[in-house]
Amino acid sequence: MKTNILLILASIAIGISSCGPQDKLQEKREELKEKKIQLQEIRHEITLLEKEIASIDPEFAKDHRKATLISTVPVEKTTFSHFVEVSGAVKSRKNVLISSENMGTVQRVLVKEGNDVKRGQLLMTQDTELYQKNLDRLETEYELAITMFEKQANLWNQRIGTEVQYLESKNRKESLEDQIANVKTQIAKSQIRAPFDGTIEEVSVKEGEMAQIGSPLVRIVNHKDMYVKADVSESYIGQFKRGDQIDIYFPSLDKSVQSTISSVGQIIDEQNRTFSIEALLPAIDFTVKPNLLAVVKVKDFEKENALVVPSKLIQKDNKGDFVFVAQKTDSSAMVAKKVQIKRGITYQNQTLVEEGLSGDEVLVDEGFRDVADGAKVKEVANVL
């Protein structure tokens, strides 16, 4: 019986010890909740009192207003460069569309698109039957003309006959020589040959088709002799010269190369009021083709030890442009100061400041639109 009573008492003690901490934790939570409510009430009362006092005492309002949270950036002193960006395209000086110089049927086409060819290689031939018949006739007449000329020359050397007869036979012979040479040239032009090493880009005719004089036959391109050409506004006349360094970016390939201006155009285009600049393509390890889009960046301005600020921080009022500078007061508090500036040119969201700053200032960055001249500010690592 005594043992049972001891067991019961032990169980009760264990139950009391296990429930005690939980009850105490709950009491603490309730107390914390009550204190928070009291704190909110006190803060509300403080706010009301501050407003009442501020309405009576303006100095109190000035001394107790809240500081605006900001971040800062220093005025950058660096070399400022400005670039003109214009669109251009890849060109080739050896991008030639060969046209027919004779009228005749295309007999053979010996190449197709994509073939690599060498200078002088035969590409296609045209029918030369009419030219050949004409050549045969002229050569027959030429044989007779030579015979007649030789006889007249012998007679003239013996002072037989007239000088006119001799000159006529000579003229006939020489005239036929010229005609034969012309026909042979036409026959040679009926054999279309590559003017330089390159790649066949396009074949415009098929075997059996009639080619008129001036008809396109085949396009040949040499990818090793290419350059970039861009048109620049006439407002930049005199700012570029041969040898100036430029950057060339190919958007489709996401590739960039550096080159120098090889040619500056001397004529203004009447339609778009631009002049052209050209730059040879250097040796590259990727493939470009004629007419590929290129963005050309040309430096037109550079200044060393320039004062540069982010463009977004510059604001405007009735006096002009200004920025906010964060300054410490005698009481070590930080305030925003409005500083009027004279801005220069802008490039890639950075603006050159010509007047108004010395270079030692710290600019209000994040929060610059929330401050006023003389307002209290507090610098934090990141406002957002």
What does this structure look like?
The protein is an alpha+beta fold. It has four domains: 25-65, no CATH class; 66-80 and 304-379, Beta Barrel (conserved putative lor/sdh protein from methanococcus maripaludis s2 fold); 84-93 and 222-302, Efflux pump adaptor protein, beta barrel domain (Elongation Factor Tu (Ef-tu), domain 3); 97-220, RNA polymerase II/Efflux pump adaptor protein, barrel-sandwich hybrid domain (OB fold (Dihydrolipoamide Acetyltransferase, E2P)), CATH 2.40.50.100. 31% of the residues lie in helices and 38% in strands. It contains four helices and 22 strands. The strands form four sheets. Strands 3-12-15-14-13-16 form a six-stranded antiparallel barrel. A hairpin with a 2-residue loop joins strand 17 (315-317) and strand 18. It is elongated, with a radius of gyration of 46 Å. The relative contact order is 0.16. Mean pLDDT is 84; it is low at 1-9.
Keywords:
single chain, 384 residues, alpha+beta, conserved putative lor/sdh protein from methanococcus maripaludis s2 fold, Elongation Factor Tu (Ef-tu), domain 3, 4 domains, 4 helices, 38% strand, disordered N terminus
Domains, number: 4
What's the rounded overall pLDDT mean? 84
- CATH homology superfamily of the largest domain: RNA polymerase II/Efflux pump adaptor protein, barrel-sandwich hybrid domain
Strand order of the largest sheet: 3-12-15-14-13-16
Strand count, sense and closure of the main sheet?
Answer: 6 strands, antiparallel, barrel
- The secondary structure category is alpha+beta
**Low-confidence segments:** 1-9
